[in-house]
Design a protein that fits this description.
The protein is α/β, with parallel strands linked by helices. It contains six helices and five strands. The chain folds into two domains: about 35 residues; about 120 residues, Glutaredoxin.
């Protein structure tokens, strides 16, 4: 016959009453939502700009204010686009490759990339662009290179340019000697004969 020996047990901790815990949780959630809404409201433009930068390789210029902001950049490249232009469609691929290579290989030199849709010449932003000196541009894939708020170079017929040629233009326009964006050299595998 076995005798049972009573074991000492720790006193049971009292859980929070369900109603009190629920009220606390709802109040905490309400405060979090209110603070988040205030932050989002206060910094909506900056958040939108960061989101657009992460979502696409370039930011679209849709207003005169956006154009002025692009023109005031320390370093910027504006791609002039028109939906009807086959040259612009081909140039857009070169532009996107250039952006990708720039961000991969020269991340220490910040450059903002923009797209200006010049399909409709009656839009205020297009008229403002022409007044600022975009008169050469027709929306067929030209690039306008901006440094310290001033146009520094102009590239036409982008579809005929390689990334290496655009890196040479970037060196000249942004005064950056030694920037190379072409194919990376393959690492030495050590299997070469001497």
């Amino acid at each position: 016959m076995m005798t049972s020996v009573p074991m000492e047990t720790a006193p049971a901790s009292r859980p929070l009453p369900r109603r009190g815990w629920l009220t606390f949780s709802l109040r905490t959630l309400a405060v979090f939502v209110a603070i988040s809404a205030l932050i989002i409201t206060r910094y909506a433009a900056q958040i939108r700009e960061l989101w657009n930068d992460r979502q696409s390789q370039y930011q679209e210029i849709e207003t005169v204010e956006g154009l002025n902001k692009a023109m005031a950049s320390r370093r910027a490249v504006i791609f002039c686009d028109a939906r009807w232009s086959i040259d612009a469609a081909q140039g857009r691929l070169v532009f996107q490759t250039f952006i990708q290579r720039w961000r991969e290989r020269v991340p220490e030199v910040p450059v903002r990339f923009y797209l200006l849709d010049m399909t409709e010449p009656d839009r205020d932003v297009v008229k403002a662009a022409v007044e600022l000196g975009f008169s050469k541009t027709q929306g067929s894939g030209e690039l306008l290179w901006i440094r310290d708020g001033k146009p520094r170079d102009y590239t036409m017929h982008l579809e005929y340019f390689s990334v290496d040629q655009l890196s040479a233009v970037a060196q000249r326009a942004f005064d950056l000697p030694g920037v190379k964006l072409g194919p990376q050299a393959k690492p030495n595998s050590g299997s070469e004969s001497r």
